[in-house]
Amino acid sequence: MKVLIVYGSTTGNTAGIAEALGERMGNAGFDVTVLNAADASAEGLCNGYDAALFGCSAWGTDEVEMQDDFNTLFEDFDAIGVSGKKVACFASGDSSFEHFCGAVDVIENRLAGLGAVVVEEGLKVDGDYSGNRDDVDDWCDRIIAAFQA
Ligand SMILES: Cc1cc2nc3c(=O)[nH]c(=O)nc-3n(C[C@H](O)[C@H](O)[C@H](O)COP(=O)(O)O)c2cc1C
Hints:
By secondary structure, the chain is an alpha/beta fold. Helices cover 34% and strands 22% of the residues. The longest helix is centred in the C-terminal third of the chain and has 16 residues.
């Protein structure tokens, strides 16, 4: 099964989670590609993949603003070819903000609107992977089970 993990990350926190997810899913036997949104283009992004994970940090104060690189991708999200595919979202954030990991909810809603199958509630990590390994690994294992089902 081929899985795409695409992420937008400014200070590296969401990137670290993406890499950890990629490694764990690879160890579980998936063929995983981890892609920085800065290097991705929307047109046909999910073509050739069976499932996808989307990671994006939030940078707004009063309202949710998506991480810059992911935001560029998001402007053309209609073109990613995700209809009917299994997906889930994740992010690193800071729980002192009103919309903790708010990009996760925005992306999930958009994916559902595009006909993707959101298999699990999004992963919201306070800080980086190093302080939240168990939560990330547990979430990853639920995703693995859902993608294999
Ligand atoms: C101006 C500013 C706005 C932010 N807004 C939010 C927010 O709305 N929600 C949130 O969870 N974190 C917010 N953060 C925190 C970052 O999202 C957090 O540091 C995150 O770990 C960065 O992840 P990244 O390194 O993957 O980009 C904000 C940080 C700054 C400096």
